[in-house]
Amino acid sequence: MPQPNIDEQIQIDTDDDNDSLLDAQSIVGSNLTISSTVRDYCFENGRRYHAYRNGQYPVPNDQEEQDRLTLLHQLFKSVTGGELHRAPVLRPPHRPQRVLDVGTGTGVWALDIADAYPHAEIVGTDLSPIQPRYTPPNCSFIIDDAESDWAFPPEEAFDYVHGRSLGGSIADWPRFLQQAYQHVKPGGWVEIQEFETWIRSDDGTDQQAVRIHEYQRKLDEASRRFGKRMNIASSVRGWMQDAGFQNVTDDTYKCPLGPWARNPHFKELGRMGKAAFFDTIEPYSLALLTRVMDYTYEQAQQYAQDVRHELVHGSFHIYTLFHYVYGQKPPEKAGDDDYNGGDDADADAADDDNDADDHK
Fold first, then answer.
1. 105, 242, 264, 296: most buried by Cβ count inside 10 Å?
2. How confident is the model over 327-349, as pLDDT tens digits?
3. Angle CA 69–42–26, to nearest 5
4. Which residue stretches does the UniProt record annotate as biased composition, category Acidic residues (predicted)?
């Protein structure tokens, strides 16, 4: 995938009735290690939330949210042209043996990685046991709190640690990334994939999205007061550098929110992006508005509905930025810039080539 050029403006398709086919109705459209108590879910304002470490994460975990996460997974892949990751750790000649997916959610990324790289052991962790019961033999899931001390001893270090869409769930990012640093092998990589909870435009039309801007400011304020800010994507690179990672890279991509672009890739990406944004408005705001901002349930629902209405019916050319930030833990040997993940790397080069082909 070529490096993104976010300074290049997205050309607008002036001939297309952008939203004629995208109204509110069309948008709306194992190896688990758990204790019995983690399934005693909590219900609030008509949505279901995690029970383990109750109240620490302000986003639901019910079926509606799981469907949203599935769409978001496809969006993260589509932004990069189909790639599951940007860090080079899973590409030949590297040979990772252990991969950790922190905050795995439904586990869909971990399952895709397990399928694409059957030689690697994949472990996913999350507060909610919402992952499939039946998984590939090289993939497992455990219940763990990413903000507590991770449940892995030093001898179980990973070659690659991945986290995605963790904004709003981490209070102390420097500590979180320090834990990632401690649990990755020398020469291994950590990658954090995040999208900005903020809209932009190249032609100034984002200023017409008054309610959306207000919603994002309110969401930023509420998440700060909650102690776990959501709009952190642009800060991850600096935090990773401060944690001691080297070769830190922030691959940043534009994602239109609506099918207004002339380019076919951006047009299709925009349809998916708008649907994902639409589905995000309520789950991101409902708990924060009622718990932190003193909204009633009815007020929070009406507010979300007003924001969705503007998103569906507005005629602006907005986008957001997706950040794929990855860095490497310095190798043990000086001058060893690349990580050789095992003595069997050369013997299994052919398998790696096949894995890479499957991944494309």
1. 105
2. 999 998 644 444 444 334 333 43
3. 35
4. 337-360
